[in-house]
């Protein structure tokens, strides 16, 4: 078939090359900074058995409460000192990263799944489905999640899995709200209308036409909720209703260090610093995502 | 010969709730609109905002069901066809080149979507048909792997046209396909549509607010005003001698580079009426320069005035006799 | 000369590079005259208008050899002096009236506030003036309309309100950036009428930006055709539209569907191949090179000189004026 009214093959007749996401991201300072930190924590969590110098559970009464390397009374083999039971603090911090990352990723994935599904349905179908789902969202928003989490964990019994599930079931509201609004906006576009005229199934429209195009705000919500989940778990563990001893959750380590904090301040400062760095990195990543995905059309 | 598409007495009423506590009021977007399209023919629909052309397009595409009236595809009611067959027979091309393509799909995926959704052909076959279609609409081969964000407005419309034609529909509904494009690109796209019509023997319903584009493209045309058809017939004949006063106004309101200076007085009185508060009798009478007393009392029906398949809804059409 | 612009340049920073949106544009408008600035998207016509009004984005740079309104040098004015001049001696109306009007204030308030900003009039005088100018743009029941909000008016009426706002201080020059593109054709005719009447009554200069050559034919005294940030052809309406010299202008006029041209559904339009350039290329070549059917080798080496066509307009092309017609006829026949 010859090309009818085609533009002649001119060297200048080009497609507009826009810089891709990664090209822009590589140059964004906040993205690179927070990306490196998060990647480092993730790798530490994954390779904990290889990186930790000691077994985090091994107790040693003789080496209790040894201070970290910047103190003169330090012990060579325990770089960051030991806690009240003589367990190596560096190893506990490294394994603690596993727990925080597991919570962060697990709870976020679960809440994303619930929230995005509800948001897509509410945004695509208006009418009673939207009203029903919006009512559920509003109900969830008016519940104080910390109290509910405490209550549930107290009833069911605390453990890592329970914490992940409870947080996953409580943190989906932002996902749902943002997805619903974004879906409503995208549904006014002609490409969704074209898909309907074409006879595409609802599943195709929701997951191939709408969802890929609302990724940007959802990534930002995911980072916010991930930081939220990490800090909530720390709070729950601190109160004794999260991860149980002897697991090295950073929040639990804070709790265990309460009594010794005036004489051995590193016991509180180090896990606190780790939580702070992780939450900060996640939030900075969220800011960077917002910057990188804002503006410009598809 | 059976008409490819026929619409009889389509009426569509929206219920608009006015304000938070106001009572719902009816908005008659379409009022007894009938049309027919033959195989391979281009029917042009022209009208200004509020005339109901977008509602008409949505109903013919199957996005909404009319409040009353029937749509017949090849002589049978459109509801008799399975959804898939209807979808493959009638395809749209929309106005906004930036909103009518999914930004996260590649051009190849976009064009192949109708084939993919309805399971037509093997993967290799689909790829072949997509590439052929891309050639026919004048897209370079390397565009197939690109995303819509990398294409210009004209190139995107070509993708939309390719997508509309790839599954071999019998009718393409073009809703202002060139209104958002630059003038030089518009000419390319109009030429392309005419070439493809000849190549594929596909009929088109061409909606535009620009009368000169309609005159260029359409074999037959229909003029709409406030949800009603006011004139219909062969394009050439209507342009040479419009029967309805509104058609004359529309024709005089379109300017061309060859015109002399000076803005013409269209002879239109008053402003656009509110679609919720339609004038009595002939809906055009408050603005019509030729209105007679009974025009405000009785609504004129669409009637043929002198052969050659023209009709006009006016008590005093601008032609005396056959 | 009411407005005198020579060698206007506008540069915008874009991801580390500098985008030259307007490259050496010359314009002039006399009192009572309408200059139409014609071009397609991306040609720089809106940027030119914003540059004249001093409304460019902060990061943009503007420089010009001469930028004068009457005896005032616009280039040397401070921000506050420019702000006092805007709306008073020079005003502008835009394409989308809904976004140009503040939705939370009645239109009467908005009109009065413009008037009081530039004069020392009190409330009653401002109201009276607002009603007067609303009536002059054809708004009936002006006193009642003053209390209405923008969303209560139709598109055509909103545009009239914008025109009234632009006229209320009796400016010397009005710039209209595609004011009728978003309106129906019948409304467009009415708005154009109002603009021409307002211009005649005040002997006001007008710059009318549009991509619609039909509108240009009806209202322009002079025409300037822009492409890729430059003016490629400039002259009287008669000369540019009836005897176009530049290949781009010829192509543009040829690609508009004409009434009574050929059998409906059967005729092809002469079209310009390729797309409007997304990013402008470097100076050594003619910007229209890639789409021009009459290109020659020299077009890729030196920028085109400005020549004078037989009908009197100036245009920037390597082709000698006498050659344009004959070469074009030959090429168009083959194409």
What's the short version?
The complex is a heterotrimer of chains A (298), B (322) and C (335). Chain A has helices at 21-27, 29-46, 48-51, 89-124, 128-141, 145-156, 160-170, 173-187, 190-198, 202-210, 215-238, 250-256, 266-293.
Q: What is the H/E order of chain C? A: EEEHEEEHEHHHHHEHEHEEHHEEH
**Residue share in β-strands of chain A:** under 5%
Total beta-strand segments of chain A: 0
Anisotropy-based shape of chain C: globular
CATH third-tier fold name of chain A: MetI-like fold
Number of helices of chain A: 13
In helices, the fraction of residues of chain C equals 25-40%
- Domain module tally of chain A: 1
Rg of chain A to the nearest angstrom?
Answer: 25 Å
The span between the termini of chain A is 32 Å
- Overall 3D geometry of chain A? elongated
The CATH architecture assignment of chain A turns out to be Orthogonal Bundle
Give the chain pair forming the largest contact, with residue counts: B-C, 51 and 54 residues
Q: Uncertain regions of chain A: pLDDT < 50 for 5+ in a row?
A: 1-13
Instruction: Using the coordinates above, name the CATH class of chain A.
Output: Mainly Alpha
- Write the element-wise H/E pattern of chain A from the N-terminal end onward: HHHHHHHHHHHHH
The largest beta-sheet of chain C arranges its strands as 7-8-9-3-10-11-13-12
What is the chains' assembly state? heterotrimer
Work out the helix count of chain C. Answer: 12
Global structural class of chain A = mainly alpha
Sum up the structure in keywords:
heterotrimer, A: 298 residues, mainly alpha, MetI-like fold, 13 helices, C: 335 residues, alpha/beta, 8-stranded mixed sheet, 5-stranded antiparallel sheet, globular
Can you give a write-up of this model?
The complex is a heterotrimer of chains A (298), B (322) and C (335). Chain A starts with 20 loop residues before the first helix and ends in a 5-residue tail after the last helix. Chain A is built from 13 helices and no strands. Helix content of chain A is 65%, strand content 0%. Chain A has one domain (28-49, 90-293): MetI-like fold. Chain B is globular. The model of chain C has no long low-confidence stretch (mean pLDDT 87). By secondary structure, chain C is an alpha/beta fold. Among the domains of chain C are: 101-170, no CATH class; 242-334, no CATH class. In chain C, the strands form two sheets. In chain C, strands 7-8-9-3-10-11-13-12 form an eight-stranded mixed beta sheet, with helices on both faces. In chain C, strands 1, 2, 4, 5 and 6 form a five-stranded antiparallel beta sheet that branches. In chain C, helix 4 (107-118) crosses helix 5. Chain C is globular, with a radius of gyration of 21 Å. Chains B and C meet through helix 5, helix 6, helix 7, helix 8 and helix 9 of B and helix 7, helix 8, helix 9, helix 10 and helix 11 of C.
